[in-house]
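okkk here we go again. third time trying to get the zinc ion bound version out, last two times i messed up the smiles copy paste (missing a bracket lol). double checked this time i swear
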Amino acid sequence: MIKLSPRFLLAMISIFGVSLSTNAQDTDKRLYEIIDDISADSIEYDIRKLAGFGTRNTFSDTVSDTRGIGAARRWIKSEFENISSKCDDCLEVFYQKDYVTPEDGDRIPKEAWVVNVVAIQKGAKYPNRYVIMSGDIDSRASNTMDFTTDAPGANDNASGMAGTMEAARVLSQYEFDSSIIYVGLSGEEQGLFGGKGLAEFAKKNNWDVIGILNNDMIGNIEGVDGVIDNRSFRIFSEPVPPNETERERRMRRFYGGEVDGISRQLARYIHNNVKTHMPEMNPMMIYRLDRFGRGGHHRPFNDLGFAGVRIMEAHENYNRQHQDIRTENGINYGDVVEGVNFEYAKKLTAVNAINLASLAWAPPAPSKVEIGGIVEPSTKLRWEPVKGDIAGYKIYWRDTTAPQWQHSRFVGNVTEFTLEGIVIDNFLFGVAAVGKNGHESLVVFPNGTF
Ligand SMILES: [Zn+2]
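finally!!
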């Protein structure tokens, strides 16, 4: 038998870039309770119910109680209200809607209201800060203009919608510092209209958006290529915000940040949280806005400068997406309930829930972080203090080629710190705020120098 010395193990650990410092967040056992409370049965019930509305095309029937998007959104709203009645009316539930006409895009067959169903769980300390989980209400047939043919959209995207409702069920049993929004968006398949509407609503109402976790297809484990995998999932994030200024673009050339935009930091946070609390899962960081040339409802939020990522299955099955239900040459087409793995949807719902909880329990991130240390042997950081009673700040750093933060140091409740012997040229840096409960904000990449 080979005996490994502790020193050898430590060396191995540092070679693989794993930090030994304990993550304060892994001491909150409520996160494990949340993971355990997410129910696959409840997700299955909701997916079957949503698929049962026949079609949820954004332009489908709005009058019927059993078929079409009108029936679907009324049912979702009543479910959010049921959840709220079990937590002392902790959810504020409402429709947020915008009118679209064929002039608004080439996939709009007629005028209609694009209606989102919003449920807000207000935070006790920072009610105007919002972390958002979204799924989509709408579905489509082979032809997206066809609003009458059956389009059960069991995976795309009843799975994301059901996960969002289940997260609301579980998280509504807790109180948070910041607000959590659970939302069903519409008009996704015709041009991301629901997301656009809610992002503009957020801007207009001056919401301080921490980020949006957009869930689009979280239930399929069988790829079109036959790969079956119920552990992996993807986190898509764009590199930097599309609305950055020319000055910010220029600064990046000299100070870095090409892979450190706000959405990427959100993706890293989720990745780290999952690795800590759900080590059996395999989160894949995808360094791009979305799938190649395709879109999702986090994008309209990114367009307005909000952090946002897409969370979804690792292996897509194109025979089950955007397809009329039929059999052709022995292949079954259609997005039917049989194609959804409810246990997997439960896992990805838990991924969302623990990150909503951590972010909503964490203090705000420091807004202004500056870095210095040019031609000096040490790196210096300073930042604007966060309002509120917090434990302090944590500095993160990593090799310039590393995808995840590799090193961190809790520096206490100060507003500047020097990392002795750490040369600014050789690493990338960031700062997070740490609450007294151990929960951490997103990491902020320096946005100024001194
Ligand atoms: Zn779709």
